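To the team - zinc ion complex, inputs and output below.
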Amino acid sequence: MSDTDLLGIEHRWPERAKWPALQGLAAAGEDFYRRGWSLGTSSNYSVVLSKTPTRVLLTASGKDKGHLGSDDFVLVDEAGKVLRSEGGKPSAEMWLHLILAQRENIGAILHTHSPSATLLSDLCASDGGFWIEGYEMLKGLSGITTHEAKVWVPIFPNTQDIPSLANAVEARLNTTTEPKMYGYLIRNHGLYTWGKDLAEARRHIEVFEFLFDVLLRKRALK
Ligand SMILES: [Zn+2]
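Output:
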């Protein structure tokens, strides 16, 4: 991202404390677009600016993620009310961000639409998800310290009824009887993952995308 992409940031978002979040999300968008994970205005990203009260900076709907500028964000509260916008609207998927944003230790939520996530989410849909185990790269997920770890990636059916999908994801997050969830897939759609801050969330996207590629290539070799 060049500095000129965010010209006007001071005028449009005068609260200086929000600038790093805007710039960080624009940089993530440029990177994910370049890697083919956020093409065609797909995906959405957010940073939690405050927990009490809930203040979430979210990419606005339908924006080119390769060239996010200061007009391309909205600031919302826990009820999805837009507190600030430069003309953009939140995506319907805002609810999938808000359920995570209000949880402890989550400071950023990232959602991508990569080819690997899309394909794997379809191939494994009938099992409701898939295990990833035995890979050194799993150690890139926060809290995992050994390649012997086993991570279950749940797959939720795709729907345009995002509030009901958000309820299903929230119920899964609250369950104590299922394996810990580091991220999840929506069938034929994409990946959601998160982190304590934007850097950790970006690392989790990279780790999952790497592992999805590996799993797909392994299947193709069989
Ligand atoms: Zn999406």
